[in-house]
Design a protein that fits this description.
9 helices, about 80% helix, Tetracycline Repressor, domain 2, single chain, mainly alpha
């Protein structure tokens, strides 16, 4: 048992070293310009350690950002009152602003976006009341809104946050409410 725990700690350390090294290199280089050799050299781990855990550099970023995103969304779902969840999401997104900018500038935004949208889809699955919407409608509404929320926050964060957080909250709430109203109208039988 102790050997297993020790092996798990070594694995986690290697993954952490690789993520730290990669993020450090991304400050000055695009993801597509980096090599595994550069990252392992910076991290102080072997290529074997890299390939034991990852196939690509994007996998390192996915492993690094997955718990960060999951934790932020989970905290909001568990601790924010229902009427404050969208505001709490906005605050969380604001904290992610520098990372989103780095992702956009250095070519790893697809990793960031995929994790964001997956967590938004889970958020909507947990928080929405569907009132007669079919499973297909629920699925596509959730995907549509998750992608839309990402684009809205992306624009706001990358363009200097010119509008207030409350303005963004109100805009998002209006989009969410309007699209849900349209979906519910579609779900009602016509006479």
């Amino acid at each position: 048992m102790a050997a297993t725990k020790h092996a798990q700690l070594i694995k986690q350390d290697s993954q952490d070293y690789l993520a730290i090294a990669l993020l450090d290199l991304l400050k000055n280089h695009d993801l597509n310009d980096l090599t595994v050799t550069q990252v392992v050299k910076r991290a102080g781990v072997s290529r074997m350690a890299f390939y034991r855990h990852f196939d690509t550099l994007a996998d390192v970023l996915t492993a690094h950002f997955t718990p960060i995103m999951a934790s932020g969304f989970s905290d909001i779902l568990r601790h924010a009152p229902e009427e404050q969840k969208l505001i709490a999401l906005g605050e969380f997104f604001s904290k992610l602003g520098p990372t989103l900018k780095l992702a956009a500038d250095r070519g790893f935004e697809p990793v960031f976006q995929q994790l964001f949208e997956a967590n938004m889809q889970h958020f909507y699955a947990v928080t929405m009341t569907w009132d007669g919407a079919t499973p297909t409608q629920q699925k596509y509404w959730t995907q549509f809104m998750s992608a839309g929320v990402y684009r809205l926050w992306r624009e706001w964060l990358l363009n200097g946050q010119q509008e207030s957080l409350m303005t963004m909250h109100d805009l998002l709430a209006a989009f969410q409410s309007g699209t849900m109203t349209a979906l519910q109208a579609l779900a009602k039988p016509t006479i």
